[in-house]
Amino acid sequence: MIQYLMAMYDMTKEQARIKVSQDLKGGKIESVQKEQEYLESFSYTEEEQPTTFQAHRYLVKERKLPNRIVKKFIENGLIRESVYQEVIFKWKKNQCVVGYSKQGTVKLTKEQQKRYRTERTYFKYIAPTTEEDTYGGFNYLVGQPKNIYFFESAIDLLSYYTLYESELHSIGDFWLVSYEGLGAGKKNC
């Protein structure tokens, strides 16, 4: 419950602990409502490296994705690398970037974990976007979307595609969609 409050309502561990403690004293837990804020329009302004060396290395060596799959997504412009050596997963709709998420490629130090208020090993960020596009995420479409598959994260999507690539292409007309865009108000985690 504490982790949930921290993630969903941008609370510190102490704030979440106090909230749970207060709610339990009265015998019931009241919901905490946080108003979701959306951008009027999205503009992709992330600074990218001219190469994707670190992003590619992380996805292949650390996440064990096949080199050819990572290259395919890089060549399709869906994966890039930020100037801070983070993997950028671009959310595209009709060939336009409508959002993105980032995954760190270097483990966070204890100081960084404290600063970001996270126990995660790697930096993760979901950029704010418009209300219309917030329910999408990193995605890969082949043909018409007759067969749709949903995933929790971009890495899950890539892993699934790795395992079932030939089956997906033999079926045809598929759309892989990561729903990381639904997370915690699009803040650093």
Automatic annotation (TrEMBL):
It comes from the Bacteria. InterPro entries: DUF3991. Pfam families: DUF3991. Residues 57-115 form the DUF3991 domain. This is DUF3991 domain-containing protein. It comes from Enterococcus camelliae. The lineage of its organism: Bacteria, Bacillati, Bacillota, Bacilli, Lactobacillales.
